[in-house]
Design a protein that fits this description.
Blueprint (H helix, E strand, L loop, with lengths): L14 H8 L18 E2 L5 E5 L4 H6 L6 H13 L6 E5 L6 E2 L8 E2 L4 H18 L3 E5 L1 H8 L5 H4 L3 E6 L2 E8 L2 H5 L4 H22 L1
Parallel strand pairs: 2-3, 2-6, 6-8
Antiparallel strand pairs: 1-3, 4-5, 7-8
Helix pairs in contact: 3-8, 4-5
The structure holds uracil and iron/sulfur cluster.
Length: 211
C-alpha cells in the first residue's frame, strides 16, 4: 500500500524537521507530477489547526498552503469569525497537488485525492498533530473530515457543531465546515453569499470553542 510512513522521522522533533523530511516524501505517486511538497505552516503551538484538502495550483508553485484564491477567502472568513491567523496552524490532508492537464502549459485542473492517497499521506498529518497539539481542529471540507474521522464522514451531517472524537489515541475537539473552494464554486452571487455566511457561522463556533 502507498504510505508516507518510511519517510516520517522516528523522533517527532519539531515542525521544521518534519517539513524537511516531507520534502523528500515518495509515499504515493502524487509527488511525481507536483512541483513540491506543501507542508503546513504557522505557529508550532497554535491553538487551532485548520485542515484543508490538498494544495492547489498556487500552493504547488509557492510551496505554502492556502495562498491562492481559496486561501484569501479563508483569511477573510477567519477574520470575520474572530480567529487570529497568528493562533492558527494551517495544513492539508494531502501534501502534493493532484491535477489533470490536457496538454503541457495548459491550465492544471484540481482532482480530488482518493482515499488511498489520503491514507498514504495520513502519517504527516498525524505527526503535525503530535507536535502542535492544538486545542481545536477545524476540518475544511470532506477530504479533511475523511482523513481524520474516517470515510463515512459527511460535512453536511456535522458542520457547525463542536465534536469530540478520539484521534490517534488522543481526545480531540473538532469543528467541521465546508471547504472555502466550494464557496468560490457557487453558481451565482446569492448562493455564494449564503455559502460564505455559512462558512463564517461555522468558524464562529470554532472561535467560541477557543475563547
Ligand atoms: N485548497 C486546499 O484545500 N488547500 C490549500 O492549501 C489550497 C486550496
Ligand atoms: Fe508523500 Fe503525501 Fe506527497 Fe503522497 S501526497 S508523496 S504521501 S507527501
Amino acid at each position: 500500500a502507498y504510505t508516507a510512513e518510511p519517510f516520517v522521522p522516528d523522533e517527532a522533533g519539531d515542525l521544521d524537521a518534519l517539513r524537511r523530511a516531507a520534502a523528500d516524501c515518495r509515499g504515493c505517486p502524487l509527488h511525481r507530477d507536483a512541483t513540491q511538497t506543501v507542508f503546513g505552516t504557522g505557529n508550532d503551538h497554535a491553538r487551532v489547526m485548520l485542515v484543508g484538502e490538498q494544495p492547489g495550483d498556487q500552493e504547488d508553485r509557492q510551496g505554502k498552503p492556502f495562498v491562492g484564491p481559496a486561501g484569501r477567502l479563508l483569511d477573510r472568513a477567519l477574520a470575520e469569525a474572530g480567529i487570529d491567523p497568528g493562533d492558527a496552524y494551517v495544513t492539508n490532508a494531502v501534501k502534493h497537488f493532484k491535477f489533470t492537464q490536457a496538454e503541457p502549459r495548459k491550465r492544471r485542473i484540481h482532482k480530488t485525492p482518493t482515499l488511498r492517497e489520503m491514507t498514504a499521506c495520513g502519517p504527516w498529518l498525524a505527526a503535525e498533530l503530535a507536535v502542535v497539539e492544538p486545542e481545536l481542529i477545524v476540518l475544511l471540507g470532506a477530504t479533511a473530515g475523511k482523513a481524520l474521522l474516517g470515510s463515512s464522514f459527511r460535512v453536511g451531517e456535522v458542520r457547525g457543531a463542536l465534536l469530540e472524537r478520539e484521534i490517534h489515541g488522543r481526545p480531540e475537539k473538532l469543528v467541521a465546515t465546508v471547504h472555502p473552494s466550494s464557496v468560490l464554486r457557487a453558481q451565482d452571487d446569492k448562493d455564494r453569499k449564503a455559502a460564505y455566511e455559512g462558512l463564517v457561522a461555522d468558524l464562529k463556533v470554532a472561535a467560541r470553542a477557543l475563547s
